[in-house]
Design a protein that fits this description.
The relative contact order is 0.10. The strands form three sheets. A six-stranded mixed sheet has the order 1-5-6-10-12-11. Strands 4-3-2-13-14 form a five-stranded mixed sheet, with helices on one face. Strands 7-9-8 form a three-stranded mixed sheet. It is an alpha/beta fold. The protein has 18 helices and 14 strands.
Length: 487
Amino acid sequence: MLPNMATENSTITSQAEEFKLLANEAFKAHKYSQSIDLYTKAIEVNEGNAVYWANRAFAHTKLEEYGSAIQDATRAIEIDPKYSKGYYRRGAAHLAMGKFKDALKDFQQVKRISPNDPDATKKLKECEKAVMKLKFEEAISVPTSEKRSIADSIDYHTIDVEPQYSGARIEGDVVTLDFVKNMMEDFKKQKFLHKRYAFQIVLQIRDLMRELPSLVDIKVPAGKHFTVCGDVHGQFYDLINIFELNGLPSEDNPYLFNGDFVDRGSFSVEVILTLFAFKCMSPSAIHLSRGNHESKSMNKIYGFEGEVRSKLNDIFVELFAEVFCCLPLAHVINQKVFVVHGGLFSVDGVKLSDIRAIDRFCEPPEEGLMCELLWSDPQPQLGRGPSKRGVGLSFGGDVTKRFLQDNNLDLVVRSHEVKDEGYEIEHDGKLITVFSAPNYCDQMGNKGAFIRFEAPDLKPNIVTFSAVAHPDVKPMAYASNFLRMFS
């Protein structure tokens, strides 16, 4: 090699390594978006280094951008087929998406490359267990058409309340404000609600939700206000803080919680029973929209299923899954503001009538309008692109503009993504992301936010807030063993 070429290569390597070191520091500080930008700079200088791609994959995983993580890890493997960390990162991303069989293949490869690595051995064993469990569940599953509703087999009136039970009680069949307040006070002290009353709340919610359309129209009278909250993710003490800042739900202080009530945070049972109880108390005081985490596949991985088994029982796992399939998919406020958990569509011309017509009483499919409502994300560039999550798609400001014009709407409000300030305004002010779980997973350092709309002009007034203290129960405490290994 000529001397000047050697010097040039050395300079490139040095510059790329400098970006990598800065990216590593940003990663350690939980500044994952910044670390991705810096790893990208390292890749731009030296795209043939598998480590940079694998590291960026890890940062994408931290932001739940599993599709991007799989792409980066795959590129690392292409550069160096014997680089075990590439398979490791891809396996972790596959696992996070519930793709256990794909994850198993990657961890088998890690084991082949590093046969004496105890960590790889442990993760492979857990992955094998998860796949075996999945195969067993598939073998004993009943076709949907033949399935009886679990709710039909439950009569909460026959469940005795023990004399020593000292918690909140529902007198008769009506959920009152006093009951909800007492229940929240008990939850703050980490006391559980008696199963009889938990069944009563969830069964009443099922009846309420089944009667609603897939797209709910909300009317806010002139001079009144309406609050939209984003993801809460089992952060009960932050939910209580929202109510302290903005008032309890009531007919004069109505809320819409825009999906992802559960998972990750370890107080998901408390969150969902509180939201459901307010809905039972006064159906017009609170509206609830389905998020991508109101699904069996997510709950199995990210903690809600395990938490329900621990705090309630196995019957509730099936009951919650059934009720989540009854949740509406989107809301429209005063025919002007479209509110949905994820985002917009892979095709133009979707009308509100198309959303109303969706048969939502099922687990979310992997494609189509329902999937995209729950999973899609906005992107800064125009047009459409692949989803960084690996499900749904990314859509640009032109897509948002056309959807609003086609349906005579003014604004899209969605959630689904953690934002440093708790919110982000994009697409020329036509799209707002709102996220209401501050310091997400106890590590992101973000603020939470909610949006107050005043009728009739419905100008969004965004309120931000910081995380509050909670008992020492870590996020993902009830998640699958396998996933906790990567958290």
